[in-house]
Amino acid sequence: MPLDPETAILLAEFNKQPGLRDVPLEVLRSIAVVPAAPVVAIHDVSDRTIPGPAGALPVRIYTPRAAGPLPVLVFFHGGGFVLGSLDDYDAICRTLALEADCIIVSVDYRLAPEHRFPAAPDDCLAATRWVAAHAESFGGDSGRIAVGGDSAGGNLAAVTALRIRDEGGPHLLGQMLIYPITDRVEPNRSMIENGEGYWLTRDGMEWFIEHYIADERDLTHPHFAILRADNLTRLPPAYVLTVEYDPLLDEGEAFADRLTAAGVPVERIRYDGTIHGFFGMPGLDKGAVAVANAASWLRALFQGS
Prior knowledge:
Shape: globular
CATH superfamily: Alpha/Beta hydrolase fold, catalytic domain
CATH topology: Rossmann fold
CATH architecture: 3-Layer(aba) Sandwich
CATH class: Alpha Beta
Helix content: 25-40%
Order of helices and strands: HHEEEHEHEHEHHEHEH
Strand order of the largest sheet: 1-2-4-3-5-6-7-8
Low-confidence stretches: none
Number of domains: 1
Strand content: 15-25%
């Protein structure tokens, strides 16, 4: 279907901006990955540091209400493994916590190129294990934990679920994957047809991966290119969201297909008429609907456990 009118207006503004290769990294990092949205009041938001593989690892904990214990979503932000921050995703995490009625632990994992693969997945695994071990200390339920994220964060959530299966727990109830990166840049249909003019571009994806992956052999490592993992059985139920005008559409849907073929319960949804990055984006009704629908899946997942 054609671009919806709200997306078309925003995209016209986005397309006036220079490409990633034309802006210094420190300037890019000063620009929010997700445009600022109104702050939603929530019971408690607290920053703390937890032990990480390379030292202190910052997290932000969102608690929607006082009564607990509450289930926990460990959330990994997007930004191509290079950009993004706790602040960029503050509004989305507040809304998800309220609408899913769960605690969100948002993880400020190490970014490339200062910290290349596998620093980010190592941080995300360590944070998830810390949540499982310490959930009761912040009102969480250690028996009801899921992982989730968007784009690069969706990749990190899926990789964390895979590593937890292979590396000794803890138990996860689910994985919420919002237009996840699942492979290296391949010349598939969506990468070609949506690779220019829809905010996230093919060249942009190549730029992100150039910053993230130092050793070419890691381009097919399953802890990055999870679509290439040999075995996807015994993974937790997944929510896989894809978008019509997204270079990552085909790899996201291919990953959902592989999960289904492996016997993993998958709820999949594709939003037509919009672009990568729309999830929770201010000014897009579809973005608000997408957050609400993902929160509904989370709430049902946690209530059914």
